[in-house]
Amino acid sequence: MIASPHRKSSSFRKQFPRDELGSWSTLLQRHRFLLTALALLAFLCTIYLYFAVTLGATETCSGLTGTKKALCRLELAKDSVGNGKLKFF
């Protein structure tokens, strides 16, 4: 007789009792390091995004339209390239 692949074997039940698998405290204990690392990563990403948004490059040509906006962008492009060398800041 072929056993169904969906049935759990008795050795699995012996290895992990039902109350140990279903307990939230056990789950938290086993994955404390991963949860701490995830919380730290989320915190650092939040700080990074805050500063990226607040200190990011402001668009100086945002209030202009049409030809004036194109000329403003051209001036910004000329300012970023000085003496044939690209300036980043």
TrEMBL record:
Domain of life: Eukaryota
Alphabetized PANTHER family for the sequence: EPHRIN-A3 PROTEIN (PTHR34774)
Protein name, entry field: Uncharacterized protein
Transmembrane segments: 33-53
UniProt keyword list: Membrane, Transmembrane, Transmembrane helix
Keyword Membrane: yes
